[in-house]
């Protein structure tokens, strides 16, 4: 395995399979690839689709929301409302850390851009896009709970993808979604196709 250090633990990648350990003071969170043994009691597994843009589909109804890059504290406060308002309180600390990390990276690097969709200046959706060494990769597509199934994510992802293609039309655009879940079908309608699967098995091991 090719092990690499990460900020909150470490990860190993084997082809399209990923192993992650999330470590804190009380619990070791382990995600096992299916290449390892599946004999862990009470383990759960999930399958994600790694999707790559084939050709962006531009057919769409008239845009309902305004999509732009996040511009300051008010936008980040709106993003926090979306994420924390639809989060199990037990996981709030993790999402607060994730949001703070996303904001720091966005403000510190031109390779990370964060976008919002607004309706009458109210943030109703957001997503990030990272420019890596060889591709663009979406980060955390979020939609306000009461605005779901209104086309927020579709319009947001189409606008972000269109901007990425104008910056570098030859660089692949990648997004990850749970297999057979609504976001996957939305991304397929935008022109993304599944290129690989990410299988993980998760279990909590308490010390």
Descriptors:
207 residues, alpha+beta, eleven-stranded mixed beta sheet, 4 helices, globular
Shape: globular
The termini sit apart by 25 Å
- Which stretches are poorly predicted, pLDDT < 50 over at least 5 residues? 1-39
The overall strand count is 11
Major sheet strand order: 1-2-3-4-11-5-10-9-8-7-6
Helix and strand succession? EEEEEEHHEEEHEHE
The secondary structure category is alpha+beta
Can you summarize the main beta sheet? Answer: 11 strands, mixed
The whole-angstrom Rg is 18 Å
Strand content: 35-45%
Please, what is the average pLDDT? 77
Q: Into which percent range does the helicity of residues fall?
A: 25-40%
How many DSSP helices?
Answer: 4
Question: Brief description of this entry?
Answer:
The protein contains 4 helices and 11 strands, in the order E-E-E-E-E-E-H-H-E-E-E-H-E-H-E. It has helices at residues 73-84, 92-108, 152-167, 182-190; strands spanning 2-6, 9-14, 17-23, 27-32, 44-53, 66-69, 112-119, 122-131, 136-143, 173-178, 192-206. A hairpin with a 3-residue loop joins strand 3 (17-23) and strand 4.
């Amino acid at each position: 395995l090719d092990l690499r250090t990460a900020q909150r633990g470490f990860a190993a990648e084997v082809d399209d399979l990923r192993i992650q350990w999330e470590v804190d003071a009380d619990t070791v969170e382990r995600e096992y690839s299916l290449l390892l043994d599946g004999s862990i009691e009470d383990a759960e597994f999930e399958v994600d689709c790694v999707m790559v843009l084939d050709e962006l589909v531009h057919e769409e109804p008239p845009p309902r929301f305004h999509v732009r890059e996040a511009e300051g504290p008010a936008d980040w406060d709106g993003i926090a409302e979306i994420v924390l308002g639809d989060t199990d309180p037990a996981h709030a600390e993790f999402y607060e850390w994730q949001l703070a990390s996303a904001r720091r990276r966005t403000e510190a690097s031109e390779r990370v851009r964060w976008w919002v969709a607004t309706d009458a200046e109210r943030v109703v959706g957001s997503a990030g896009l990272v420019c890596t060494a060889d591709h663009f990769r979406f980060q955390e597509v979020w939609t306000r709970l009461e605005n779901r199934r209104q086309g927020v994510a579709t319009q947001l992802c189409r606008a972000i993808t269109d901007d990425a293609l104008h910056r570098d039309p030859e660089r692949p655009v990648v997004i990850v979604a749970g297999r057979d879940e609504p976001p996957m079908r939305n991304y397929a309608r935008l022109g993304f196709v599944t290129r690989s699967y990410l299988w993980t098995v998760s279990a909590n091991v308490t010390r």
